Predict the 3D structure of the following.
Amino acid sequence: MSEAEANPHFRPVVKTKALNVIYPAADQPVHALSNIDLVIGKGEFVSLIGPSGCGKTTLLRVIADLEPITSGTVFVNEMSPSEARQARAYGYVFQAPTLLMWRTVLENVMLPLIIQRRPVQEVQQIAKEQLAKVGLQGFEDKYPWQLSGGMQQRVSIARALGFEPKILMMDEPFGALDEITRNHLNQQLQELWLEQQRTVVFVTHSISEAVYLSTKIVVMSPRPGRIVDIIDSPLPRERSAALRDSEAFIQLAQQVRDALKDGAL
Ligand SMILES: Nc1ncnc2c1ncn2[C@@H]1O[C@H](COP(=O)(O)OP(=O)(O)OP(=O)(O)O)[C@@H](O)[C@H]1O
């Protein structure tokens, strides 16, 4: 049991035990995830980091009920992932913004809520509030193609947050952006997370992004993906840009780098 799990306020949201995913294939089945034991607590910001093809996206998809498992167990809020999905536990942000180019920014954020048949006026209000939270007030009537990549990704985040998911799943949401924009969005996401105390599961290739954002970093090995190390971050919950230059940040980044290296052996 980790230090975080020993805390009496710790509430598990995601629990996986001996989880395996094997993708069937005509020639050779792909063993994507091997014996994954993971507990994610309420309000944690958990990053999954590891080399390409190690199963990060697969793990995210399993938790979100987008991928079946081969063996083991997965519980989300004491439910199966499928029950959790029906209870609308998830918000999902992909690497590409996946916005509808022929709908305005406001309409894009409203769409999932309209599909849920919520009253239009209420939906409009929620969408406007969420856009303001990601710093896009005044852009409601623009079309996605009129925005930069970083702004489009902020629209995706507003859309995912609109129906107040219990867990926000983010699959390399800033992977396609330049470093300056990425650092800026990291800071915005950190502030949003701090304010809302939402549980986030975040896939990244970037050590500094994982260190800057996470309360827990899950380091994975090359295929078949297994967990090499689970690192509880010693950094304070509230983080500023200056933290990136601190000794604690540099040490933690080195710890992640070492774990990645060990996992590759
Ligand atoms: N639907 C599928 N059918 C067969 N194999 C798959 C399928 N989806 C993923 N895989 C394989 O499973 C392994 C894990 O893939 P996954 O996308 O989860 O890795 P990842 O760590 O997210 O990779 P990346 O960092 O490159 O996005 C890879 O070898 C991939 O080719």
About this structure: The chain has a mean pLDDT of 91. The first strand starts at residue 12 and ends at 23. The CA atoms of residues 187 and 240 lie 7 Å apart. Residues 23, 30, 32, 50, 52-58, 223 surround adenosine-5'-triphosphate (CB under 6 Å).
